[in-house]
């Protein structure tokens, strides 16, 4: 199963507080970047999913902060699919800095929702085929 992907991002000034430390709420956006790029690496975009009538809202978000990221740090976001998706898809994350220090561990669970009925639905076959 193709379940790991990583991307690098640089911390922007707007993501930090007056001390140059990343505001804690921005880490959720970093995790979103990780999973969006994980899907894109499979050849699937959020846009194409939504155009096919499927949305993917977050139903659970957990983060454990280890160290602070700072302005201009180059971060590595590691995204791992936890198990084969069904009606839900679950990811584990790690965010590391250039010094190879673990900054954050996270987990998200998202549900596949049929946009017409607003009800849960199974993971689309085109995602399962790529796995």
UniProtKB/TrEMBL annotation:
Top-level lineage group: Bacteria
Keyword Aminoacyl-tRNA synthetase attached: no
Keywords: Hydrolase
Family matches, as Pfam families: 4HBT_2
SUPFAM superfamilies in the record: Thioesterase/thiol ester dehydrase-isomerase
GO molecular function: fatty acyl-CoA hydrolase activity
InterPro entries membership: 4-hydroxybenzoyl-CoA_TE, HB-CoA_thioesterase_AS, HotDog_dom_sf, YbgC/YbaW
NCBIfam families: YbgC/FadM family acyl-CoA thioesterase (TIGR00051)
Stated family: Belongs to the 4-hydroxybenzoyl-CoA thioesterase family.
Cross-referenced PANTHER family: 4-HYDROXYBENZOYL-COA THIOESTERASE FAMILY MEMBER, NOVEL THIOESTERASE SUPERFAMILY DOMAIN AND SAPOSIN A-TYPE DOMAIN CONTAINING PROTEIN (0610012H03RIK)
Protein name: Acyl-CoA thioester hydrolase, YbgC/YbaW family
Organism: Zhouia amylolytica AD3
């Amino acid at each position: 199963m193709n379940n790991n992907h990583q991307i690098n991002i640089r911390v922007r000034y707007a993501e930090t507080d007056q001390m140059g430390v990343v505001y804690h709420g921005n880490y959720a956006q970093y995790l979103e970047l990780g999973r969006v790029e994980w899907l894109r690496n499979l050849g699937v975009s959020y846009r194409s999913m939504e155009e096919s009538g499927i949305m993917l809202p977050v139903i659970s978000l957990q983060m454990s902060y280890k160290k602070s990221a700072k302005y201009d740090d180059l971060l590595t976001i590691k995204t791992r699919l936890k198990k084969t998706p069904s009606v839900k898809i679950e990811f584990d994350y790690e965010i590391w800095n250039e010094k190879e220090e673990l900054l954050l561990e996270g987990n998200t669970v998202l549900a596949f929702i049929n946009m017409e009925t607003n009800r849960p639905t199974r993971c689309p076959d085109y995602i399962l085929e790529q796995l």
